[in-house]
Task: inverse folding
C-alpha cells in the first residue's frame, strides 16, 4: 500500500499526457469535426462522438464517450440545444474542467451564427422545437466560415502556442469557401426560386443561401413522423406548387419518401447532412456534393 | 490504506494535483515556474483586453439592435449577416448557463405516471410490491415527480427530486426521493455526491420509474431493496479510472435504517415472528456501505456492453449484532445501427442477478441463523420501428429452500412480462403490459396493466 499511492499518482499524472503532444479536440458531430480538422490541420487530433450517418438528435450517450470527454482539451458542440438530449449527462460524468460550461475549452459553434426560426414562445404542442432556433446551420457554407473562426478562436484560447496555425487554418478554409461560393451559386442559379419539400427542417439554411423555397416538411411538426392526414394535405399542395425535389437525410425511412414521390412526381434526393466519409470526406466536399446533387435534381 | 502522509509526500501530491489541475494551454508541466508565471500574466492581460473588446462590441450590438426594424424571414431571402456574439471569458462569479433552458438558473421538469389495469390476484399488493407499481384493480397514480437540477456555483451541481403519489385511499403521499449535490471540480477524476440519493447498485436501483422499460419493478429488486428501492442520506465518492475503456468505481456510505434500507436496519414490521431490534449507530460498521465497479466496451460501431459489480453491506434489525450482505452483478448490451433515425431501431438486453446473505440470529421460526436467497431478472427491449418498443422480461426469485415458515419475502416466485410501448414523442408514452405470476405461496395470477406517462419542462437527457 505504501508504494501503491505514489504509483497511482504517477499513473494519474501521466493519464492526460498523450502521444505527440497533439491537442485533443472532441466534436459532437462530423460536420464540426470536419471544420475543426481543417482549422487545426495536424496540430490536433479530432474525435467525433456521433456517427456521421446517424440522427444527431438521438445519439446514445455511450460510456466510452465519457472517457473521450474526460481526456479532451477542447469540446466543440453545435449548440442551440442540438445535443441537449445526450450531452449533459456525459459531461457530468466526464468531470473535465477544461471543457466545463464557460471554460476556454468549451467551444459552442452556434455562437456568432444568426439562427433561423427562433421561436417566440415555447410550446411542445408545435412539436419538438429547438428553443434557440434551427440548429442545422452548417449546410450554409457562409456559416461554415463563421464556425471555422469560432473554432480557431476557441483553440487559440486553449493552445496559444499554436494559435497562428489555427488562425491560418480557419483563413484557408474561409478562402476555399469564398473561392467555391460563386461556383456553387452559378450551379444553382438556374434553380433559383425552385420549390422543394424536405423531410425535417435540416436544409433550411442551404435553401436560404441558394434561393430555394422550402414549401413544407414531410414531418407535420418537428420530430413527429409523417402522418397520413398531413401527407393527404401536403400532396395536392406539392402538386400545385410543382415541387420537383424532396430532400431527406439518408437515415430516413424510404417508404414515406417513395410514396410521396410517386404521388407527386417529385424526385427523392438523399442528401447527407454530415461528411460521411463516402459521398463527402471534408466540409467543402459536403457542400460541393449537396450543390451538385441539387443542381442535377432541379435541372430542366 | 496508508493514511499517515509524511510532509514530503504531501508536497509531492500537491504538486501533482496542481499539474493536473492547471489548464492544458501552455503545456504547463514541461515549463519552469517563472515562465509559467509570465504566461499567466500575459493571459490575464489578454483576458482584460478581451473583456474590454466584448464590452465595446456589446454596446455596438445594442445600438445596432435598436436601429434595426424586425423583418419576417422570407424562405428565399439570403441568410442574414451573422451577428457578432463572441464567447465571454469565464469568471467564477458569472452564473453558469444551463443547457436546456438558456436564461434560467435551473431546469424544471414534471414527470407523471398513471397506471390502470386488473389482476386475478385477490389482493394485488401481494404480487405488486413496489411502491411505484400499479397496486390495485382500477387506477393507480404511483409516481408524479418534480425534478429540479442545475449548477449551484462553479463547484457544485444540485438535484432535487420530489415525488407525489396517491395511496389506495387517494390520499396524497410525498417523498423526498432524491436531494443531493455533486462536485464538478475535484481533481484526480474524482466526483463526490452528498445528500439523499439512490445507491448506485446495479442498473435499475438508481433509475426513476419513468425510465423503466416495464410498468413495475423486477421482483428481485423488490426482494432485496423493498418497495422504495435502496436510497438513504449519505455521501458517495466515485473515481473514473484512467483505463482506455470506460471504467468507474463508486463507494457510497449511507444511513442504514428505514424502509428505504429494506434489508438493513428496517424496523417496519416483525422479522421471523419477532419484533425488530431498533439498533442505533455506534460504530463505523453500523452504516451502509455500497461499493460498485462498472466498465463498458464498444464491441463494434453499433454494439455497446456495460458490465458492473455491486455490493451493499450493513447491519440489520433482526438481532443485536447481525449483518446483511447483498451482492449484485449486472450486464447491459445495446445494438443501435449507425443509420438510426429518431433513436430507432435498437435492441437492448439487460440482466441483473442479486444474492443476499442475511444474518437473522437465533429465532424459533428459523432452522438456521444465516439465510441465503437470490434472484435475477433478464429483459429484452426491441425498438422495432420508430416510436414502438416491444419488451419481454423474465423474473425469478428463490429463498433458502424450505427453511422456515411461509415467508413472502423468501418464497420461490417467477414472473413473465411481455409489454409493448408506444412513444408519441420522447415526452410521452403509452404502455401495455401482461404479467404472468407464479408463486410458491400465491399460486398463478394474470395481470394486465396500462401505463401513460407525460413529461413537462426541460428536456430529459437519459444516461446510457
Result:
Amino acid at each position: 500500500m505504501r508504494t501503491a499511492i505514489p504509483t497511482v499518482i504517477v499513473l494519474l499524472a501521466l493519464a492526460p499526457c498523450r502521444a505527440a503532444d497533439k491537442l485533443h479536440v472532441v466534436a459532437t458531430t462530423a460536420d464540426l469535426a470536419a471544420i475543426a480538422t481543417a482549422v487545426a490541420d495536424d496540430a490536433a487530433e479530432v474525435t467525433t462522438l456521433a456517427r456521421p450517418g446517424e440522427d444527431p438528435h438521438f445519439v446514445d450517450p455511450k460510456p466510452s464517450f465519457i472517457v473521450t470527454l474526460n481526456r479532451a482539451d477542447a469540446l466543440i458542440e453545435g449548440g442551440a440545444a442540438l445535443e441537449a438530449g445526450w450531452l449533459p449527462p456525459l459531461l457530468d460524468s466526464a468531470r473535465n474542467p477544461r471543457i466545463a460550461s464557460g471554460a476556454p475549452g468549451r467551444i459552442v459553434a452556434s455562437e456568432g451564427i444568426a439562427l433561423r426560426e427562433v421561436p417566440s414562445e415555447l410550446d411542445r404542442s408545435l412539436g419538438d422545437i429547438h428553443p434557440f432556433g434551427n440548429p442545422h446551420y452548417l449546410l450554409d457554407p457562409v456559416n461554415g466560415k463563421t464556425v471555422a473562426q469560432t473554432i480557431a478562436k476557441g483553440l487559440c484560447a486553449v493552445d496559444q502556442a499554436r494559435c497562428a496555425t489555427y488562425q491560418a487554418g480557419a483563413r484557408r478554409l474561409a478562402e476555399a469557401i469564398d473561392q467555391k461560393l460563386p461556383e456553387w451559386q452559378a450551379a444553382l442559379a438556374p434553380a433559383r426560386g425552385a420549390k422543394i419539400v424536405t423531410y425535417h427542417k435540416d436544409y433550411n439554411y442551404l435553401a436560404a443561401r441558394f434561393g430555394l423555397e422550402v414549401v413544407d416538411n414531410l414531418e407535420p411538426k418537428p420530430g413527429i413522423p409523417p402522418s397520413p392526414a398531413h401527407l393527404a394535405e401536403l400532396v395536392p399542395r406539392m402538386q400545385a406548387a410543382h415541387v420537383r425535389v424532396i430532400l431527406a437525410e439518408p437515415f430516413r425511412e424510404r417508404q414515406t419518401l417513395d410514396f410521396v414521390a410517386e404521388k407527386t412526381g417529385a424526385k427523392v434526393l438523399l442528401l447527407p447532412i454530415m461528411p460521411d466519409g463516402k459521398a463527402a470526406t471534408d466540409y467543402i466536399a459536403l457542400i460541393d456534393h449537396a450543390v451538385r446533387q441539387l443542381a442535377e435534381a432541379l435541372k430542366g | 490504506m496508508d493514511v499517515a502522509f509524511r510532509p514530503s509526500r504531501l508536497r509531492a501530491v500537491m504538486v501533482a494535483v496542481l499539474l493536473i489541475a492547471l489548464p492544458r494551454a501552455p503545456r504547463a508541466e514541461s515549463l519552469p515556474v517563472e515562465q509559467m508565471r509570465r504566461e499567466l500574466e500575459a493571459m490575464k492581460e489578454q483576458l482584460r483586453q478581451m473583456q474590454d473588446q466584448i464590452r465595446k462590441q456589446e454596446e455596438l450590438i445594442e445600438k445596432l439592435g435598436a436601429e434595426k426594424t424586425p423583418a419576417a424571414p422570407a424562405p428565399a431571402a439570403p441568410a442574414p449577416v451573422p451577428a457578432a456574439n463572441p464567447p465571454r471569458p469565464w469568471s467564477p462569479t458569472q452564473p453558469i448557463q444551463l443547457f436546456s433552458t438558456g436564461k434560467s438558473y435551473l431546469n424544471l421538469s414534471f414527470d407523471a405516471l398513471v397506471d390502470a389495469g386488473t389482476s386475478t390476484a385477490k389482493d394485488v399488493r401481494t404480487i405488486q410490491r413496489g411502491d411505484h407499481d400499479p397496486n390495485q384493480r382500477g387506477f393507480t397514480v404511483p409516481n408524479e415527480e418534480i425534478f429540479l437540477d442545475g449548477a449551484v456555483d462553479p463547484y457544485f451541481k444540485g438535484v432535487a427530486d420530489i415525488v407525489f403519489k396517491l395511496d389506495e385511499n387517494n390520499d396524497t403521499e410525498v417523498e423526498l426521493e432524491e436531494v443531493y449535490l455533486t462536485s464538478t471540480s475535484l481533481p484526480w477524476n474524482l466526483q463526490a455526491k452528498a445528500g439523499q440519493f439512490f445507491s448506485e447498485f446495479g442498473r435499475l436501483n438508481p433509475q426513476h420509474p419513468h425510465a423503466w422499460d416495464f410498468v413495475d419493478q423486477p421482483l428481485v429488486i423488490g426482494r432485496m431493496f423493498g418497495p422504495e428501492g435502496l436510497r438513504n442520506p449519505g455521501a458517495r465518492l466515485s473515481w473514473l479510472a484512467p483505463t482506455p475503456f470506460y471504467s468507474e468505481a463508486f463507494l457510497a456510505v449511507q444511513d442504514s435504517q428505514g424502509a428505504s434500507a429494506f434489508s438493513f436496519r428496517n424496523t417496519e414490521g416483525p422479522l421471523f415472528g419477532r419484533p425488530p431490534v431498533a439498533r442505533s449507530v455506534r460504530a463505523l460498521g453500523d452504516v451502509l456501505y455500497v461499493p460498485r465497479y462498472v466498465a463498458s466496451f464498444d464491441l463494434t460501431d453499433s454494439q455497446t456492453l456495460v458490465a458492473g459489480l455491486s455490493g451493499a453491506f450493513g447491519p440489520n434489525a433482526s438481532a443485536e449484532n447481525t449483518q446483511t450482505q447483498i451482492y449484485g452483478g449486472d450486464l447491459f448490451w445495446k445494438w443501435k445501427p449507425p443509420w438510426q433515425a429518431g433513436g430507432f431501431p435498437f435492441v437492448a438486453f439487460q440482466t441483473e442477478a442479486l444474492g443476499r446473505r442475511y444474518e437473522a440470529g437465533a429465532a424459533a421460526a428459523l432452522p438456521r441463523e444465516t439465510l441465503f436467497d437470490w434472484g435475477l431478472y433478464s429483459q429484452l427491449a426491441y425498438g422495432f420501428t420508430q416510436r414502438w418498443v416491444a419488451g419481454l422480461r423474465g423474473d425469478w426469485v428463490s429463498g433458502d429452500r424450505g427453511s422456515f415458515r411461509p415467508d413472502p419475502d423468501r418464497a420461490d416466485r417467477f414472473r413473465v412480462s411481455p409489454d409493448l410501448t408506444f412513444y408519441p414523442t420522447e415526452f410521452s408514452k403509452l404502455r401495455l403490459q401482461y404479467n404472468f405470476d407464479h408463486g410458491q405461496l400465491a399460486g398463478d395470477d394474470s395481470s394486465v396493466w396500462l401505463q401513460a406517462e407525460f413529461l413537462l419542462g426541460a428536456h430529459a437527457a437519459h444516461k446510457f
